[in-house]
Amino acid sequence: MRDSYNLMDFIKMYYLDSNIPMYLFEGESCIFCMPEQTDLTYPPKKYIETLLDSEKRISYCTTKYGIIFCSLKVAYPENGKLIFGPVTNIPYTESDLLQLYRDYTVPNHDRSDFNSFLHQIPCVSLNSLLKKCLFLNYCLHEELLTLEQLTSSEPGASVQISLKDASLLEGTYQTKENEQHNQTYAIEEQILKLVRTGNYQGFKNIEFSDSNYHLGVTGSTVLRQLKNDIIITTTICTRAAIEGGLDYDSAYQLSDYFIQASERLNNIEGLYDLLSKVGYAFAQKVAESKTPVSTDGCIQKAIRYIQQNTNQHLTVGDVAAYVGFSKSYFSSYFKKTLGFSVSAFILRCKLEEGKELLQYTNKSISTISTFLCFSSQSHFQTAFKKQFGMTPNEYRRKR
């Protein structure tokens, strides 16, 4: 930043657009703030110290009840930092206010003024606040950072998701409506289309922000809001994945996985990370399942039956009887509709499940071949190599 550039004027202009409180610190002293205020509304010392102690260009901290503060290191003044906050992504509840009164040490007779200060601050999510800091950082330092760089380095911020680990095989970005139309349906349509078609790469091109994604309030606290939004998103993605051809068992196992994971988490960063992975994970499962999609109810019923009975001695006659047709008629109809035979699809489903068991469990090849009802381990190995171009052992070693 040029020495002649007035940082305080910059802060004044940016505050007019954002309405987020901003504090300029030189060392441990606040030398300027927007809006003008008294000691009553200065951020609590314990949060300021956390942000001032950070060596990162941009850092943030969250309270146990979901209030967010963020800081940006500046070149002028020396040892200077801009601190933003408090913000939250849902309206303050009575419980939140009581916590804030304690943190800010607000006397009873000043609580009305303090509430007025809070209600002037827009509801902003963590991701949106960090994006604002990234923009200011670029304006002040001409340094291009990404949101992924900020969040991936936070201890415990990233939730590792394994789509097909043993627990699966064996067992909105949120904002206050803030006088804006609820955009949930439009966003849902984008997400559901990507999930149905298995286009998981498409999630990288969707920009979720507070300006285009207004879910409304679904929880009494930020943590509950995030958990509820994960449940809602998981539910609609489960249905879309089934419509896209994912078998019922896999879809609902993945659904349980996300919902249970969200209930175990009690930090905002982890829940945001989990929410960002829901749609992508379901779309990836749909893509990997490679299940043929047909609007014919009879064909879909047969597909589900085959997928759910890969561990049975399943024959073409069994499938035809299940959907209520003769073997010869159904065989001909199935192949004409989908372009491959019933027996080929049965084998394919068994081999796809065998591939997952090889990669994500320690079960022996003999156990897997017996579980999938191959006549012998040798038969399983031969069919596997023909389908995937490598033996089961080679596949397991590579994965």
Task: Summarize the helices and strands and which ones pair or pack.
Blueprint: H1 7-18, E1 22-26, E2 29-34, H2 45-53, E3 58-62, E4 68-74, E5 80-87, H3 94-104, H4 111-119, H5 126-141, H6 147-152, H7 166-169, H8 184-197, H9 222-243, H10 248-264, H11 268-289, H12 297-308, H13 316-323, H14 327-338, H15 342-360, H16 365-371, H17 377-388, H18 392-398
Antiparallel strand pairs: 1-2, 1-5, 3-4, 4-5
Helix pairs in contact: 8-9, 8-11, 9-10, 9-11, 10-11, 12-13, 13-14, 15-17, 16-17
Estimated radius of gyration: 27 Å
Spatial ordering of strands, largest sheet:
2-1-5-4-3
Average pLDDT metric: 81
Topology as H/E string? HEEHEEEHHHHHHHHHHHHHHHH
What structural class results from the helix and strand content?
A: alpha+beta
Q: In this structure, how is the largest beta sheet organized?
A: 5 strands, antiparallel
User: β content, as a range?
Assistant: 5-15%
